[in-house]
UniProtKB/TrEMBL annotation:
Ranges in a coiled coil: none
Designated name of the protein: SDR family oxidoreductase
Source organism superkingdom: Bacteria
PROSITE patterns: ADH_SHORT
UniProt domain Ketoreductase: residue ranges: 7-209
One Pfam family it belongs to: adh_short_C2
Family the UniProt entry places it in: Belongs to the short-chain dehydrogenases/reductases (SDR) family.
Keyword list, A-Z: Oxidoreductase
Length: 249
């Protein structure tokens, strides 16, 4: 059974890594899927083809999440193209590490713009489409285990940005619940991606902080997102779910 049949989803930063895995999983569950990407058109096109291979419609929109107007336009284009918007996954993120005293204001501002402001802006834009016809909706943001446990130095900026999503999620859950919109946060643990490969130079040390002793596959994160987006997740809101192999246990 396709649990998301007839639904429309938008995944920001969906051209690679966890975002790509989420886009494909939502399509496998029956949703038509749009994704945003900043620069890599070829990778975005590959994900579009993977979505289409499931029999669903797909759309890739170039949009820098640091640009509010571009992000809002991507939300509106998704709803206009597919006729609705039921699921928003705030996935796009910037991961900068290093001693906090060495970060310039431009780096701080861009990190907060992409990791925090973009989720707020996209949610604002999405809600306008979710309200119509009493359909309700789902807003799911992708946080990080680092927001709950920063085990190495150099993570202050990234951890700060991801922790902010916890407050946003709780506040929006209260505000949007009466309108049938749930709002949740998923904290992935170390996940095997191009940017953070499971065979990277520090991977063994990072995996050692998990209870399971390994990295996740992107599909394991996507499975939790699909649950929250589907009918079985309709009574879950304001929650922060760790999918981290016991990293924060």
């Amino acid at each position: 059974m396709k649990r998301l049949e007839g639904h429309v989803a938008l995944v920001t930063g969906g051209s690679r890594g966890i975002g790509a895995a989420i886009a494909v999983r939502l399509a496998e569950e029956g949703a038509d899927v749009a994704l945003t990407y900043r620069a890599d058109e070829e990778r975005a096109a590959e994900v579009v083809e993977r979505v289409k291979a499931t029999g669903r419609r797909a759309l890739a929109v170039r949009a820098d999440s640091a640009e509010p107007a571009a992000l809002t336009a991507a939300v509106d284009e998704t709803a206009g193209t597919f006729g609705a918007l039921d699921i928003l996954v705030n996935n796009a993120a910037l991961f900068l590490t290093g001693p906090f005293e060495e970060f310039g204001l431009a780096e701080v501002d861009r990190t907060l713009a992409v990791n925090v402001r973009a989720a707020f802006v996209a949610s604002q834009a999405a809600v306008r489409h979710m309200d119509g016809g009493g359909r309700g909706g789902r807003i799911i943001s992708i946080g990080s285990n680092v927001g709950e446990r920063a085990v190495f130095p150099g993570l202050a900026l990234y951890a700060m940005s991801k922790t902010a999503l916890t407050g946003m999620t709780r506040g929006l859950a209260r505000e949007l619940g009466p309108r049938g919109i749930t709002v949740n946060l998923v904290h992935p643990g170390p996940t095997d991606t191009d940017a953070n490969p499971a065979d990277g130079p520090s991977a063994a040390a990072v995996a050692g902080f998990t209870a399971l002793g390994r990295y996740a596959d992107g599909a394991e994160i996507a499975g939790t997102v699909a649950h929250l987006a589907g009918p079985d997740g309709r009574y879950v809101t304001g929650a922060a779910l760790a999918v981290d192999g016991g990293f924060t246990a």
